[in-house]
Amino acid sequence: MAPPKNAELEMICINTGTLASLCLLWSTEEDMDPPEVIAERPRLRQRRGSRWVAWAFYFTIAFAVLSLLKLEPIARNSVSNDNSDPIIKETKLYSTADDPIQESNQSSSIVSDERIYSQHQSDTSTPLKQLDQCTPEQLKTIEMQLPPEDCLKYKSQPWMQRCSFTYASRCPDAIWLKDFYTQIHSETSASMKLQPPFVGIFIGCNKGFDAFNALRMGSGIKHFEKSNWRDAILKNVGGSSGLHHSVCGQDIELQFSLQENSPNDTTSDAILHCVEPMPQTYRVLNRSAVQLNITENFKVVNAAFSHKDGSVPFPKGGKVGVENKGIANCNGANDAACTNVKMYSLDTYVDENFSSNTTINYLSVDVEGYDSDVLLGGYRTALSRTQYLEFEYNWMGPWGKQKLSAIIPELENNFGFACYWPGTDGNIWRITKCFLDYYDIHFWSNVACVNRRIDEARYIAEKMENMFLDTLEKGDDAVVIGFDKIQMTTQYLG
């Protein structure tokens, strides 16, 4: 077997990209001797000398080439699998191969677009640690601030709404949310980074005041002016006499405050689904949204929600925005005073209206006692991608057969939610891992939960927990006192 010719050696050198100088040196040395000099060499010397040298040289080259061909892929893999370097991580996440708009120069594979980076920059953040169980001292303070006496005294008359956690959470002031979105819009104005579009779902939208204000808060768009919504609603019901009163005065409550330099157009991708089952209320909400030309951002839907899909009867009459009527007021599907409304599970609705990677920033559930059923309908996918959740606790409907002590651990263990009694004046009490027995007595109240597994909700989670600890520090100054009896029964008897 003869050594390869010069052309073959050159080819090996070119293919491997290594040992080129060595191959070239060998080729050059052989070519330096003229043919006549080679012919004059003794045949014995040529066979014993050049043949053994050539064979030795050939095997050396072959071994080197094979080694390099074997080692080079290993070297490449060792680099690509090394995640210790943050630059390598970013190259993998933001490669131009994944970007539809690419530069022709492939020398740099990191996309510099701040909009893409801002959506993923939290991927490497340290997860929030597990919440601690409340200590005996903390539980004692909570019980002092939310005393059980009225709850126990009036537990057989839940419609009286005489319970401390009802007093506390009746009309909460969600400071944690306001601060979060104020910070987001401030950072957006300063750095001009594109925030992921806000997505909200309000199930039991009622007159739409809370939902409309949430759209303004989430989008940061001044065009969503609460007074315009109120004027449109009043115009479509013939004045305030045609509108059922708001329990917490949402119609006159101050709207979310935005900076002067906030945008004032309707080009935002933010969207809020205002879901209202009461037919007469839905018609007024939808007509108002159309008149204000905001249907791209404020989608009004006539539907009911439960743990399954189907249809369900709802009352046809009554004042627009009535808050104490629903499924329980209909005597079956054939009740002449009712009409059938399409019913969704939360999972089905989310699957049909949003892409699989959409985060639900704000989910509000207010369905007069059916809130637990709505939550059960979101166990497959919807709740796991919900950032912030509010729902009502109640004595009516399915809630009467559900225990809060069962729902709260489910929300934490399955989805990462930490739940609180939301109050006013900066007061808030954690329910998760701080449960007191009398919370299982059913009274109308509000519960606010934050998903601690979604990193974008980190600020909200930390804010709520810090406010809870601050509330405990207030001691006697945060003791909740009851409202007037007539005030508390207005919602259900008036």
Descriptive report:
This protein is α/β, with parallel strands linked by helices. The chain contains 18 helices and 11 strands. Strands 3-2-1-7-8-11-9-10 form an 8-stranded mixed beta sheet, with helices on both faces. A 3-stranded mixed beta sheet has the order 4-6-5. Helix 13 links the parallel strand 2 and strand 3. The longest helix has 38 residues, at 43-80. The chain is globular. The chain starts with 5 loop residues before the first helix and ends with a helix.
Features of the shown structure:
alpha/beta; three-stranded mixed sheet; 494 residues
Shape: globular
**Rg from alpha-carbon coordinates:** 35 Å
Question: Can you give the helix content as a percent range?
Answer: 40-55%
Distance between the termini: 106 Å
Count of strand segments: 11
Helix- and strand-based class? alpha/beta
Write the SSE topology.
Layout: H1 6-16, H2 20-32, H3 35-40, H4 43-80, H5 86-93, H6 114-120, H7 136-145, H8 149-153, H9 164-169, H10 175-191, E1 199-203, H11 209-219, H12 226-237, E2 271-275, H13 279-291, E3 298-301, E4 304-306, E5 310-315, E6 338-345, H14 346-353, E7 362-365, H15 371-376, E8 388-393, H16 404-415, E9 417-422, E10 428-430, E11 445-451, H17 458-474, H18 485-493
Helix pairs in contact: 1-2, 10-17, 12-13
